[in-house]
Amino acid sequence: MEGKARAKFIRSSPRKLRQVIDLVRNKHVEEAIDTLHFMPKKAARIIEKALRSAVANLMHVEGSRKVEVENIVVTKAFVDGGPMAKRFRPGPMGRASRIRKRFSHVTVIVGEEKE
């Protein structure tokens, strides 16, 4: 079985989130949470929250069967681009320059380690 969590409409660009999420993919959950907890990036807090939610969802799905936390692994973790908020800023010679404020969707899937 697997547990899945999605954090949608995160107000950070996908590129910044992908830098952090690449560090926790295919790691044990305890190691991934430790890595994220002590990382000084804003993206780490967002991904840690989604990871904890995915683990809780796995525990809820496997309610009747005992799941060992040491055996849970981050099987998939990816970031998709969300919508862009478009703003305008004054540019040179009376023109307007477009500013794109990017949003992201984070998906974290955890499952039991296969032996």
Approximate strand percentage? 35-45%
Strand order of the largest sheet: 1-3-2
User: What is the name of the CATH topology?
Assistant: Ribosomal Protein L22, Chain A
Instruction: Name the CATH homologous superfamily.
Output: Ribosomal protein L22/L17
Number of beta-strand segments: 3
CATH top level label? Alpha Beta
Mean pLDDT: 92
Corresponding CATH architecture: Alpha-Beta Complex
Order of helices and strands: EHHHEE
Helix content: 25-40%
| Gyration radius from CA atoms, angstroms | 18 Å
What is the count of distinct domains? 1
The shape, in one word, is elongated
Please count the helical segments.
3
Distance between the termini: 14 Å
Description:
- The chain has one domain (2-112): Ribosomal protein L22/L17 (Ribosomal Protein L22, Chain A, Alpha-Beta Complex).
- It contains three helices and three strands; from the N terminus they run βαααββ.
- The chain has helices at residues 14-21, 29-37, 42-61; strands spanning 2-10, 72-90, 96-112.
- A three-stranded antiparallel beta sheet has the order 1-3-2.
- It is elongated, with a radius of gyration of 18 Å.
- The two termini are 14 Å apart.
- The mean pLDDT is 92.
Report a brief summary of the structure.
It contains 3 helices and 3 strands. The mean pLDDT is 92.
List the helices and strands and how they pair.
Elements lengths: L1 E9 L3 H8 L7 H9 L4 H20 L10 E19 L5 E17 L3
Antiparallel strand pairs: 1-3, 2-3
Helix pairs in contact: 2-3
